[in-house]
Queue: 3 jobs
Job 1
Amino acid sequence: MLQAAVACGAVAGMGVFIAVRQLAPTTPDLTAAVRRMTAPPSRVDEPEPGSAPSRSALTTVGLDARLGRFLHERIGDHPAARIPRRDLAVLQLTPQAWLGQKAVLALVGLAFPSLMVAGLALVGAHLPVVIPVAASLALALALWFVPDVEVRTRAATARGEFARAVTAYIDLTALERAGGTGTTQSLENAAQVGGSWVFQRIRESLHRSRFSGSAPWQSLSDLSEELGVPELADLADIMRLSGEEGVAVYDNLRARSRGMRTALLAREHARANADSERMVVPVALLGLLFLCLLAFPALMRVL
């Protein structure tokens, strides 16, 4: 009962502390307020089905958003934070949302074992204090890294989709150039054809370059660096030759598109072969289990 009382008191004390902390007047941090006011707006609305790389549930409001802002203001620029900015940029997530999700999951990991021990204590089962403490720390540490794995996996899938869409974008740009359209106009016209989230990101980048007065290929190169998609940088380099030196790039664009498709196909084949190799062990174990089931009756008669 002592452990249950301690756990209930800790939970109640945490609730009182959070309530007092939110209700008590505090002095605002002017530096953080100015940074939030001058930061570019981030899109957090839910996309239409198939229009974006399935945004994660990391972008939420409430406790996780506040914790994310708190952590980002203190450790966001520290090298030890290791914020995957490229992965987050591909998924259109903010570092604050990512850090907030990590903090919430870690708090859940800290509280869950204590609640379990309190529930066991109510039915008469008592465990040493070391067990819930170790379980809380281990579970909190494990849940802290769950958003890392999720973001990395989703970003890899989104980059693959981006690369496949870029091959189509290169072909469309080549057709525009073959029709006599200018370099800048061919990039913009080709971006207007597709309706996926990839073409939407490219259109936004080209619109920013038009309003800022910079070259569109430089904008595409910056977007490639931001998202970690080298295929888009190849297109930007080819179009830079066309825009700055007047080189005919139709054949170069078509050759680059074919090369990218070949590379993507080889990557898919390698992934399929790896999946097939991983299936060998489960199939072998299933066959061994079937043989054991067949031999079990005869073995029992012999014994």
Job 2
Amino acid sequence: MSLGTSTRTSRLSTTASLALLASLVVSFLAASAVPTPLYAVYQAEWGFSPITTTVVFGVYAVAVLVALLALGRLSDHVGRKPVLLAGLLGQVVSMVVFATAAGVPELLAARVIQGVATGAALGAIGAALLDLDKVRGSVANSVAPGAGTASGALLSGLVVQFLPAPTYLVYLVAIGVFALQTVGVLLIGETVTRRAGARRSLVPQLALPRSARRAVLGAAPALFAVWALAGFYGALGPSIVHQVSGSSSIVLGGLSLFVLAGVAAVAVYVLREADPHGVMALGVLALVAGVATTLAAIDLGSTVLFFLGTAVAGVGFGSGFQGGIRTVIPLLQAHERAGVLSVLYVVSYLGMGVPAVVAGFLVVHGGGLLPTSYEYGVAVMALALLALTVVVRRPEREPAPQPVHASAASGRLCTQGVQ
């Protein structure tokens, strides 16, 4: 059976369905950021080292990556809804494990479950957004990750700072959100029909359609660089803020990731209609400027300058990510979306996870927190400048796939470029 528009009727409007799907990205990535302000609490209670913190952070990225490779194309065959429901169930299970954790093994288990659930669902959510509306879906695909990461870090910090039982309450709230979203997913219509090949789709592969190969290879260095920046703030941000400011405030520690991701989301929305290659170039330049300012702030011990640099880096994060996604999406047929989006997320999570774990090792066995921060920052800037050379040497535009209009015989979606 070929991929096509579903005949199952949605009980929600297209706009409501788009909002629900975008909220899934927000809640999944917010949940991934929730433990960040809590690492200091866990570290004080269980006495583990900074390298353990970055391993707990990095194992999530590895789990997401593995799930993307194995499950990223599954929704093209079994439908979007079953994959979304399975992802929501996995998130609930991970929240239960977090809430009942008694040590590092439970934290690692929770992060693995959470990573698999997120990785399984991200490709399906992104593809479903594009199935419903290519223009609005493209914007949501770029805005929602930043909004989710920002809200998760800030809300978790507020809960930890001001409410009782922080290591329980924040996860119980997340379970309630996921339960409501499960009801919403049951109400939306399926956007694709089932087709053969589900088992074969579980075999990990990074195959790309010919029409998108150049675009993906051009976007990959920028995506890796901007997500390496996200890994920097996710793994080391709170510790650096405490070192620079001299404050032990958990809210202030989580504020660095909030500023980075929040500004990124705003940048994505503001630049949503600009040329994607120009947006990607702007992102790379802003990333370099922002990281340089942040490193200067660490050297000077200036909290204000640190957050200013973080905001500029946030423009780079959002612009680089959006530009990379938008240079690829117009080249994809409907049945290629989930798989290619999964490839882009694989590149992103490699960028986020691998450098962060290396940084944790260097904090313990190298020169300590601040020297490692300098080394990490310089490495991110070098990656960004490498990405800039790829963007500047922009290849000739590849022809977009020819529109194929849906019909009763083919059941395939009409594909048009996303502006």
Job 3
Amino acid sequence: MALSRSAQSDLLLVLVTLVAAISWMFSKEAIVLMPPIMFMAVRFLLAALCLLIFSAAHLRRLTFPLLRRSLVVGSFFGLAMTSWVMGLATGDTMGEGAFLTSLGVILVPVVARLAFKESSPIATWLALPVAAIGLALLSLQHGFRLAPSQGYYLTAAALFACFYTLNTRATTADESKQRAPVHPLAMTTILMFVATLVTGTASWLLEFQPGSQIPVSGALILWVLASAIIGTAMRFLMQTYAQSLSQSTHGAVILILEPIWVALISAVWFTERLDGIQLMGCAFILLALLVNRWQAITTGIKKWKP
């Protein structure tokens, strides 16, 4: 029996979370060897050039309204990734950062409500105070004060919520409004180019030092290429395509797997450990994510029953 478009979207998003988690490792290794925002600019440029080979025909067919919509989505994406990499560069534990960034999933219905007047389920409002408890626990180690890295991650979460919402609307058709979708390949390519512009500008403003040089090594080339091809081009193409398969935003619940993968990878690869308070904070955030999408989870379980 052929899988429905919604089921295909869910399976692809599971794979996306694993690739995204591996990308955290690639990025963490790379920013040890070069400035973090500059790394993102190089990463996105390489990914964009790779995708351009396959997306040129789709890009030529874009109308001005579709292009404008894509540029807006790309701007939020670029800003989110800039804030995210600053959190990665200034933070001590990837696992904590992944759980903080995943709060963007909870904020998706909130953004949809505020921006597009879409109704938000009661579960969203129940999840928000649970997430707040988790955030408070994570800030305990700093005396109820957010560390700079936590501030970057939370900013990235808010921007990612805007990105997820706009990306879903831009890549799915809306027959009631006669709105054509942006092809996933074209959208992903534009995302990469806009993110290159955003991060390149931020790097020039914040990191540029006349006369400074970056030692180029085999390890640096390896991590940059892996981040560009696997962690960026492949990951976001799969995510955009998966989101284009279904107008529903319930698939975002699957993204809660990403911080779990990241915590496991950071423990194995970097031997990172979360203390008891951090584990409790992450657990509350995970609980909030589950509460937020409980109906989608139970519906999915029923559908998958043999």
